[in-house]
Amino acid sequence: MPKEKYDPPDPRRMYTIMSTEEAANGKKSYWPELEITGNVRSLSPSLWTLTHLTALHIADNCLSRIPPDIAKLHNLLYLDLSSNKIRSLPAELGNMVSLRELLLNNNQLRVLPFELGKLFQLQTLGLKGNPLAQEVMSLYQEHDGTRKLLNYLLDNLAGSIKCTPTEQPPSRSWIALQEPDQTRPSALLSVMCYNVLCDKYATRQLYGYCPSWALNWEYRKKSIMQEIMNCSADIISLQEVETEQYYQYFLPELKEQGYEGFFSPKSRARTMHESDRKHVDGCAVFYRTEKFSVVQKHTVEFNQLAMANSEGSEAMLNRVMTKDNIGVAVLLEVRKEMMEESSGKSLHGMEKQLLLVANAHMHWDPEYSDVKLVQTMMFLSEVKNIVDKATRSLKLSSVSGETNSIPLVLCADLNSLPDSGVVEYLSQGGVDCTHKDFKELRYLDSLTNFNCNGKNGNSTSNSRITHGFKLKSAYEDSLMPYTNYTFDFKGVIDYIFYSKPQLNVLGILGPLDSNWLHENSISGCPHPHIPSDHFSLFTQLELLLPSTLPQGQVNNQVNGIHLPGGRR
């Protein structure tokens, strides 16, 4: 059912007539409702230009048909067509998805267009006094009959669950951003980031515009896997992967294609019975075994970090610790064969080249911008620790590694827009402790624990929390207008970041054709052709090998490890 409360028009509503003096003084009229009466037999085309209308009363007339152009009144919440002589309804009526009340009582309707099922926000549907089929009226007269009838119509919109009502969307275009420099040895790798929409979240309550059969996991999972296979990325980062589906579907399917994977569920899984634990979602990273071998695997639990670093902050305990989001990180070694194949040169004698892949899913609620920002800081702090410890323990150099020593690919559903503190923190290297996204809550003492300068860093009220990485988004300059596309929200909340100077972006997979969405009146996803409410991100990166870094940085690099002071 619709989330927003709807109040129907008041039949006893009062109205006023503007005086000549008021009109002369420039007073503007506002009339969101229109009533047409008087045995009207046809409607003027000029009516469809009144797109500001929210209520249209055309009851008690002699109309036998309603023109398809009525769908142009896209702001209508209330439409009363009762007591006319209407024999059929235009399919376009189903595109008026703002409707909350549709009254069709006492007409001559024998059938209803299946498109009416698209009116997922409809709360009242009047059908009495029509010679409709018994099957339709029986369903309508049941408890919650309006909702059941709309679901029935939507589920049968295509005539068959094996045939969807619109053409397949056109392929997304590849956007080349730069060419690899063939004169320099480098390794090419591709990365995919995709929130696959966990089965338990794919409900008609949340996605009332999608047929129930198209929300069913058995239907969606095939399209999701097809999307993954079409990209055929070297590294695949997925969010909202259900535990059972990881082990029974994703891992077996992708193993057959030459991948291995790592998965961790949200923290709540630890306290659950096995029968419930299998339905908890989490984050997964897959990698091609012919190109990478795994060195380390890490799970980052944000609620545990919040508890350990609260420093007496009530906000940290009451707001951050109560959210069980997680992140994962996989330290990979790039196989020498891959580097030699990409560069076309023998790399005999070269030490191991590492790559850290991190994947996270931050809290969803827009009212918790502070939590998302703190979670992101905690994650980057842990990623830095992984880099530092790996540099030391694997003895890749004779000195302690720095933050940028191992190339980083960060994939995430940040649930944060490009103008958020989260994205500012990642792309600008840090954020002020007074940033508005903290909501003036007391986090400062605990935030200094996640500063790249450590706990001994500056903790004044004007301090800035930094992460030390040099990160850049693969999708910049509005190349993707939205990564999450639902009826209620459309925006960019998914990201692929990569670290400079070791990595460059060569190209990205562009957005879905907006004309296709518009022409097919697709108000939100999932959809029979789009299995998730998110669009996947896909990019090709160039990994510069140590001797190929820009002049001035070469002397401080040994096999991808940054050495301060030019020491060797």
Quick structural summary:
The chain is an alpha/beta fold and 568 residues long.
Q: Tally the helices: what do you get?
A: 14
Q: Please, what is the average pLDDT?
A: 89
Cα distance spanning the termini: 66 Å
State the total count of DSSP E strands.
24
User: What sort of overall outline do the alpha carbons produce when their principal axes are compared?
Assistant: elongated
* Class per helix and strand makeup: alpha/beta
Q: What value does the Rg take, in angstroms?
A: 29 Å
**Oligomeric form:** single chain
- How much of the sequence lies in strands comes to 15-25%
Strand line-up across the major sheet: 6-21-22-7-8-10-9
Question: Biggest β-sheet: count, sense, barrel?
Answer: 7 strands, mixed
The helicity comes to: 10-25%
Uncertain segments: 456-461, 551-568
If you had to describe this structure to a student in words, what would you say it looks like?
- The protein has 568 residues and is α/β, with parallel strands linked by helices.
- Helix content is 22%, strand content 22%.
- The strands form 6 sheets. A 7-stranded mixed beta sheet has the order 6-21-22-7-8-10-9. Strands 11-12-13-14-20-17 form a 6-stranded mixed beta sheet. Strands 1-2-3-4-5 form a 5-stranded parallel beta sheet, with no helix packed on it.
- α11 packs parallel to α12.
- The longest helix is centred in the C-terminal third of the chain and has 25 residues.
- It is an enzyme of class 3 (hydrolase).
- It catalyses: Exonucleolytic cleavage of poly(A) to 5'-AMP.
- It holds the Pfam family LRR_8.
